[in-house]
Amino acid sequence: MINMESMANEKSCIELCTNSNTNITDSKPHDNTKVKTLTKEKLLQLCTSSDTKITDSKQQLCTSSKARVQAKRKEKTIQCQECTSTFVRKADLTKHMRTHTGERPFSCQVCGAAFSSVSNLNQHKRTHTCEKPFSCQECGSSFSMNTNLKQHMRVHTKEKPYSCEICGYSYSGMSSLKIHIRSHTGEKPFSCEACGTCFADKSSLKKHLRTHSGERPYSCETCGSTFSCNSDLQIHIRRHTGEKPYSCHVCGSAFTANSTLKKHIRTHTGEKPYSCHICSSSFSENTNLKKHLRIHTGDKKVRDKPYSCQVCEAAFSWTSSLKMHIRTHTGEKPYHCDLCGCCFTNSSGLKKHLQTHTGEKAYSCQICGFACSSNSSLAAHIRTHTGEKPFSCNKCGISFSMNAHLKRHYLTHSGEKPYACDVCSSRFAQTSHLQEHKRRHSGEKPFSCEVCGSSFTTNQRRKQHMRTHTGEKPYSCKICDLAFSFSTGLKQHLRTHIGQKPYSCKLCKSAFSESCELKEHLKIHIVEKPYSCESCGSRFLSRSHLERHMRTHTNEKPYSCEICGSCFSENSSLKKHIRTHTGEKRYSCQICGLAFSESSSLKNHHRTHTGEKPFHCERCDASFIRNADRTRHVRTHTGEKPFSCHECEAAFSDNSSLRQHLRIHIGERT
Predict the structure, then answer these.
(1) Which among 16, 98, 568, 629 is placed 20 to 30 Å from 208, CA to CA?
(2) Boundaries of CATH 3.30.160.60 in the chain?
């Protein structure tokens, strides 16, 4: 087999001899053919015999050449006059000097950004062209710079060659290590010219500057939400895809962001890397440290809530809370449900809403089995068993089981109603009340009963309605064991035991145990009755009273008894009737033991013991135990006779007199 390297050496030798006009001749120079033959043979013999010598000479030549280059570099080393850096070429020194002078002679023709070198400008141009010529062979990711690709490859190889000498943390890139070291030294070389805030790395400064400019260059293609940095966009996209690439090796919990995983791992390790330089307290999160540092400031208002709204001057402890609050003014709802299109001001609201579609209730109470969709709801529920009320008002001392209830309570002291209706200008203390109020204008009832199809303006009212189908009565009285479907019913019932009457009339000082009784009582002071009957001209204070009255003309009785088939014009009358079948008398007098089927009958009975007559006639000094008695009495002054006989047109002031009269006609017919 012919050695290719020997053939190359042979050719080189022949060319060398030819170019050098080397005359290798035989004893007979006139014979040209023989000369050529001998010359070739001698050359081959010469190359073969001296191949080793040529190779050695070549190596010596390369070694001496390198030595000369190194000596030349040593001789021509150029040193920077500003620092101790040295360079081989003057061009390298010129490029380096721009780091001292700040000179950026190369500018982008698209956006005007300036750079200190052509290579940096070329890299920047790729941000406009979206060119990413460097691709990863493992996952296909593309990059605009080769250095970024090299650093990305360490994600696959798990290589972290750069380690911190102080704490041992390792990083895949030198830049990440430099930024980390500043967490030990406290160095923050990048400062904001607008507010003076300093940062450890340039990328954090860029993100911060967008809080002043309002720039959000990164947008989500799914829902249109915009972000100030690309990393926030990538985390947001995972909420649509459901991707959670960061998992805990201890418990298996998965997260959308690496920062969230790091925070979670500290719950296992107990690590608290953020310490206060004043009192040495340690914290697992930087946000908790910032909140703690406010304790050491002098001004209590600034200390507790340093972030204030420029529209309504409401103050908050966190910038995130302020941002969410500002959306109540702007109406912005950046979080959208892909299933039904509902929008929300914060991500937590969207998460809770999504569980209404999935029906997921991952958190259950170990005491009673109650299931809910969030951990905070479970914690609040457990307090109903323990009776714990950790949130107390610093003005009146009232305690609450939930922080949201305390916040609502604070508004009763301040009288603040920050949420205004854009239709009628009514104001509300809570945004939920505003949304419910707006539905009265629009007529929207988005919450429907799956059993009977009834619709409601709020989900809470739908839940309460569902108990009429299920018969659930979760609220029970500890004194007499009576159970109620609603907490308001239990509260009203408890007042029958303690005799509390918190609702008083400012006009006549009458007191009532329920607000509805007070509202009904106030109508006797109101002369105007805006709702009139078209059939008989009777006037009423409310539309519901008019509707009930109209049934006396139409004889409509939509409520029927399933036991005996009797029909009634009102649902309350049907309930009273059903008790005649069951014999139930749940309301008993604690003084004499007499039992009643209705709470109103018990209240009227109580007044026979106390002698109370809260219903007064405005025309004379007569007083009455029952409002119905007072109403009949008033007709003796007005002469009103609303109950008329359909047989002979006789009229009466009360229904009982009409019934007695009707017996005359019945007797005539029989």
Answers:
(1) 98
(2) 96-159, 417-472, 487-669
